[in-house]
Structures are given as C-alpha cells and as structure tokens.
Amino acid sequence: MDIAAATASPAVDLPGYGELMRRMESAPGNRQAFVEVTDSSGDVSVFLAHRDPLHVAFLDLGWSRAARFPAGDVRIRLIGLPGTMSLAERLDRIREARPPAELLAAPIVWPRGATLVGPDVPTPVVVLGDADKVLQDLVEQLAGWAEAIGQPIVVAGHGRTPRPVPGGQVRALRSLLSQFGFRWKVPVVLTFGAVDDNRPETARLYGALDDFHVSLVHRVPAGFDYRWTVRPGSTADGQPPGSAQLALPLLVFAAGKDRRPASASTTEAATFVSTSLTTLLGGLGGPVKQLAPWVHQIANRDPEAAAHSAALQLVAGGHQDILSKVLAGNPRERIFESLAGLGGDTPVDHQRGVQTLLPLLSQLAGGFDLKDLASQAALTALNDLLGGTKDHAQILKELSDSKDYLTDQARVDLVRLIQNLASKMPKEDLKKYEVATQLILTC
After folding, report:
1. Please, are residues 231 and 209 in contact by the beta-carbon 8 Å criterion?
2. Residue 57 to residues 25, 54, 71, 338, Cα–Cα distance (Å)
3. Residue at 269 is within a domain
4. Does 158 lie in the same domain as 63?
5. Which of 52, 93, 177, 264 suits a disulfide with 212, CB 3.0-4.6 Å?
C-alpha cells in the first residue's frame, strides 16, 4: 500500500528537516500528516506529524513514543491526512482500522517452540517450550481464565527449576504478540521462571513485553516461598495486586480494560507478513513493494516477520532469482550457493556483494517459511565478523543462545559451506571465516 495513495493525498518531497518543521508550523491547528523518511541504507520509517494550536509534535506510532528521526543523508516525504481533528481522534482512527475477516479467521503461524495446549479459540492458551511439562489441570484452568479475561494467555519459562525465560522463547513470544495484535488481541504472559531485574535475560523479556505493552504475571520470592504479582503492560493500570496463589484476579488486572494493540499497522501489511513467502513469491514486485515501510516496522518487533522485509529488499535489489532459489527447497545449501555465485570482477567485489546480502539471507533463513535458525545464527555471526561490528566474545554469546538449533549435523554442514565460501574471498579476510567456523564448533 502506498501511503500517499491510501490517504488520497499527494506526497511532497522535502529537502530537509528544517523544511518539514516549517511546513508543519504553518499548517492549521489540529492537522496531521505522515512523514516517510528513508535513510542512507534504504531503511524506511514512517512517523505521524501533529499540529495542535500551539505546538508541533512528531510521533513514532510503531514504537508508541516520540519520533527519533534518522540522521545523515535522508529522503523525506510529507503526506497530508484529510480532515481536521484532535490527535486523540486521529490515533483512534488509525488504531481502530481492524484487520479483515479473512485475517482474523486465518490460523496463527506458530513460531518454533510454541504449542497450542487448549481449544483453538480466539483466546487460546499457548505454551512456549516443552508443553508436556505443564499440568493438564493448569491448562484447563488457564483456558477458562483466558475466556474470562477475553485475551490469550502465553505461558513461558515453566520448568520445575525457576530459570529466566530463554532467548528462543522470547523470540517466539515476539512473533505471537505481533500476530495476536493483528487480530486485535493483547495476550497476558505468564511465567513460572525467574524474573530478576539484574539479569540480561530478564531485560530481553521486558523488551518484548514493553514493545507490545503486554503485562507479565510472575512470581517473586517471599521468605521461603513465592508470591504472585503482575508487571503491568501500561502505567495506567494502577497498583498491581499480589497473591500467594496463581488466581484469576491477577489475570484480570494483567489484561486491563479495553486494551488495544500497541502497534499501528495497515491491513495489507498485516496480511502480507501472515502469508507464506512461497505463496507471495510471484507478486513481490510492483504495488506490493509499497508495503515496505510498514513491513519494516513490523519486523523491528517480530524477528519472524523480518524474512518478509528481507524478501522485499531482495526483490528491490534485483535478487528475486536468489529468493526464488532459496524458497524452492534445501535452503541452507542454496543460500551459500547463491553467496558463492555472486561473482564480481575481483574477490573484493565478490566480498562486497556477500556482505550486502548476508543480513538479508540471515533474516530470510529465520522466517516461518524456512525456520532454519541454525543457518540464521551462523550467517549473523559471519556478517558481524566481516563487518567488525562485534567482538568475538559477543558473537560467541549470541551463537550460544542458538545452540539448541545448532545440532551436530547443522554445525558440520555450516562449517563446510563457510569454508567453501571462504575459498572465493580475498586472502586477507580468510582469518575471519576461520574464526566463524571455530565459534560455530565451540559455542
């Protein structure tokens, strides 16, 4: 969907942020516009500009915060919105654009490690991790509570030993929260795991919850036992209750009243990222590419949707042949075959092409079409090494977070494929490829 076409308003290219501010300051009160900013790397962000009688404000609806405009060489487009209304009215109009019936009726694409444990209803109970460890009596109780609060319940970190929610579950959680949001649902997350504000695993969990304004029902130490409480998804929720037992009032408070999904998107973009890329493959050019700004914003929160953003970027960059090849089957081999076959006048040119495609092919590997998280981890590590953006300890830590996917066979395959790719690269970079294989084998 082209934003200008969707609003029936022309898009105006502006020379800089100064001109953007001048135009908004000269607009009548209670007028709004979309601001589309493309940075030097081609990433596109969409913001909402608002002119009230006294001030101008710029909002990032995707992250529910003040806009943070990209710096440097950017392209700016201003698309005026029709009508005069308050900011609250405009936000209501944007957020109440519900998905179509076919999307609401479409099944959730369950991310890896997510299991539906109760009835397949609009307010289901989903377990992240080993669902067999959740007692059936608790599942039945949660199913009744989910129906009572009118929201899905997602259970994470439910092992017998209270450990932090692992990174793989947080990744799956992000995908679920995004997909439920398209269906106008804001789940409640429940964990039996450790929630320690001083641990990086907890910060990662909080980041996912905060991005979607979702509440967490969890336990806190109380003497020699535990007490249940709620980490609210919104500051407007008030003082959370406490309870010695897991009880319905905790879930009622966590669900809130008339809570709406935190992120704004378009019907077309929500439908797009909910559809298999193999189904979409023939139509990724033309008008569909106009979805890119919205798909990119969805992908910022949902790593599964990043594959759809990457697919649009591959097509825009003239690499639909690579996309088709990878989606056709045996993706791990074909990703590395595509990288090895890029060619170039010199090995340095070849390397430059590899570094351009590595992040996109990494995202593609991790999407719900391919679900090859081992390849995604290896490609990300290789990209970080070649770009020099992280030290070896950081890369090893991130690979270790993916070790559940890096089976012995996956490690053997990936080392072989990386070594083959390295044979075509500049000699001065061979050490980086060697380090990549060592980290994959030892993480």
Report:
1. yes
2. 10, 10, 18, 45
3. no
4. no
5. 177
The amino acid that residue 390 corresponds to is K
Containing domain of residue 24, as a range? 3-95
DSSP string, 229-244: EEE-SSGGG-SPP-BS
Residue at 266 is within a domain: no
Q: Does residue 78 contact residue 337 with C-beta atoms inside 8 Å?
A: no
- Total domains, the chain: 3
Task: Please provide residue 121's backbone torsions phi and psi, each rounded to the nearest 5 degrees.
Answer: -125, 170
Residue whose pair of structure tokens reads 């790397």 in the numeric block: 41
* DSSP class per residue in 287-329: GGGGGHHHHHHHHHH-TTTHHHHHHHHHHHTT-HHHHHHHHTS
> Each residue of 373-416: pLDDT tens digit?
999 999 999 999 999 888 899 999 889 888 888 999 999 999 99
Q: Which two tokens stand for residue 314?
A: 């591959």
Q: Taking the CA of residue 419 as centre, how many other CA atoms within 13 Å lie in the half-sphere pointing to its CB?
A: 10
Contact yes or no for 38/44 (Cβ under 8 A): yes
This prediction has a pTM of 0.74
Q: Is 94 left (phi over 0), alpha (psi -120 to 50) or beta?
A: alpha
243: which strand partners? 228
61, 95, 129 - which closes a domain:
95
> Shortest CA distance to 77 belongs to which of 51, 41, 47, 43?
47
Query: Beta strands 114-116 and 125-128: pairing type?
Result: antiparallel
Shared domain for 236 and 138, answered yes or no, is yes
> Is the per-residue pLDDT at 60 higher than 90?
no
Half-sphere exposure in the Cβ direction for 22 (13 Å, CA): 6
Cα–Cα–Cα angle for 246, 251, 256, rounded to 5 degrees: 155
